[in-house]
Amino acid sequence: MSDVLTGAWPVEAIRAAEHEVMAHVPPGALMRRAAAGLARRCVEVLDRVYGTPVVLLVGKGDNGGDALYAGAALARRGAVVRAIAGVQDERVHRAGLTALRAAGGRLVELEDVRERPALVVDGLLGIGGRGGLRPDSARLAVAAEQWRAQGSVVVAVDLPSGVDADTGEVAGAAVTADVTVAFGSLKAGLLVGEGAVRAGLVEVVDIGLSFPAEPLARLVTADAVARWWPRPGPSDDKYTRGVVGIAAGSEQYPGAAVLGTGGALSGPSGYVRYAGAARDAVRTAHPEVVSATSVADAGRVQAWVVGSGLGTDDEAEDAVRQVLATDLPVLLDADGLTIVAREPALVREREAPTVLTPHDREYARLAGDVGPDRIDAARRAARELGVTVLLKGYRTVIAGPDDAPVYVVKAGVPELATAGTGDVLSGVIGSLLAGGVPPAEAAAAGAFVHGTAGRLAAEAGPVVASRVLDHLPAAVQRTIR
Length: 481
Ligand SMILES: NC(=O)C1=CN([C@@H]2O[C@H](COP(=O)(O)OP(=O)(O)OC[C@H]3O[C@@H](n4cnc5c(N)ncnc54)[C@H](OP(=O)(O)O)[C@@H]3O)[C@@H](O)[C@H]2O)[C@@H](O)CC1
Ligand SMILES: Nc1ncnc2c1ncn2[C@@H]1O[C@H](COP(=O)(O)OP(=O)(O)O)[C@@H](O)[C@H]1O
Ligand SMILES: [K+]
Hints:
Elements: E1 7-8, H1 11-22, H2 29-45, E2 53-58, H3 62-76, E3 80-85, H4 94-102, E4 106-108, E5 119-123, H5 135-149, E6 153-157, E7 179-183, H6 193-199, E8 201-205, E9 217-219, H7 222-228, E10 243-247, H8 254-265, E11 271-275, H9 279-285, E12 290-292, E13 303-306, H10 314-324, E14 330-332, H11 335-342, H12 345-348, E15 354-356, H13 360-367, H14 374-385, E16 388-391, E17 396-399, E18 406-409, H15 421-434, H16 439-460, H17 465-480
Parallel strand pairs: 2-3, 2-5, 3-4, 5-6, 6-7, 7-8, 9-18, 10-11, 10-13, 11-12, 13-14, 14-15, 15-16
Antiparallel strand pairs: 1-9, 16-17, 17-18
Bound molecules: ligand NPW, adenosine-5'-diphosphate and potassium ion (K).
Residues 63, 122-126, 156-159, 161 line the site of potassium ion.
Domain YjeF C-terminal: 221-479
InterPro entries: Carbohydrate_kinase_pred_CS, CARKD, Nnr, Ribokinase-like, YjeF_N_dom, YjeF_N_dom_sf
Binding site for (6S)-NADPHX: 62-66, 126-132, 158, 256, 309, 359, 423
């Protein structure tokens, strides 16, 4: 798969790549490529083109130009195309407007549109946008929202207007799209935060841009996970495949232990050990897990998962300290994060891979408010603590302590927002760590199969964590085969 389909470069890099290509192609060629891809996608979302009412929302920049050229292509196929300017009329892309008019389209005022359009093309603002939408554009974004609520399909040009291209932040009004057609490469703002919600289905039209430097973010694909996922070879035994230790759960919260060990059993390691007070529950649920009552008695492992359902009393703190004192990879979750938030040196001083898996409230305890820029938030905490941070949510963001691109996982579904699914996730990632996968890739691969299991579970019925567990083997199978 081409890099531009999975990498998200910052606006600055996209501009530089654009200039590089423009030096070698005729003027307007890039915009024509972009508009052709956009028009193709617009045709796909319509039942038919001939006679269909289409509204273009047009800003003063090239984003509006793309919309006008695509609108001209639709008008040539018989669509009834009306453009509405989000700025004073004379400031829209000249050549684009000429093309639209030549094809029979017209520039009108919002008030002149009597019939609800089947398709709204959002060309108000692309990567040239700064700050929240100004009032004239915001008014059209609101109109697009209203049409969409009544059944119109909204296609965003490059980026839903009002979304920050690099962060996904939305300040004020913004367009919500069913489909976003992104040019040249993804943008981080289409993958994370509010932008991910606004973008709908995202499709990249390759217009020939190439990038010398690493992207800001990479979308995790099944192919990548399949490459990272260890497979047993003829000379392997259960130990060489890696032993993962789960120190989670308590008498009060046995579920965390059952779900964590269950998650680990679908990972690539050959052996799952449990250490803690929920032995009986684990033994009943998973006879293949070998258990002990404490970390000290658990025997050798190649990676630890510690924290969820442990509580934060002295005993819990002891378990966390013991695990963190090893030179093994450790995944820290839930109560483990609370304990580390009180004493960050516990992880800062570690040399071995350490993965923290906070949701937003846990993150706040560790590093302050997540804020609207989730990529920056994950990076900031990872750098400050010298760890790998997996920030949970609608989109999961994984950042290492270095400057490598962050991973974004979009495999999940909102139904995963139910108690205990995080415990399942921690077990899968722990197993990958025990199998020798580097921390960021282990976290990304774990989140991908976990998200896929959540989707499969949601397709089968209401989602609870044990049903996510039930669907994990199938999720792994379809990802890595
Ligand atoms: N990269 C590529 O290779 C290719 C890129 N292409 C396309 O070009 C697009 C980028 O075009 P662009 O540079 O003209 O910027 P764009 O986003 O249309 O608008 C910027 C204008 O809007 C204004 N404005 C700013 N903020 C605002 C706000 N909050 N609310 C309201 N207005 C605001 C600002 O005006 P000013 O601030 O000066 O008043 C400025 O003039 C890109 O997204 C893609 O669609 C393709 O055609 C082909 C290849
Ligand atoms: N809105 C959402 N869309 C998709 N996935 C979500 C959403 N909310 C939460 N999740 C996922 O569900 C899991 C919840 O984990 P967590 O909050 O730790 O739950 P628990 O502590 O109860 O196990 C994470 O994998 C997270 O990414
Ligand atoms: K747009």
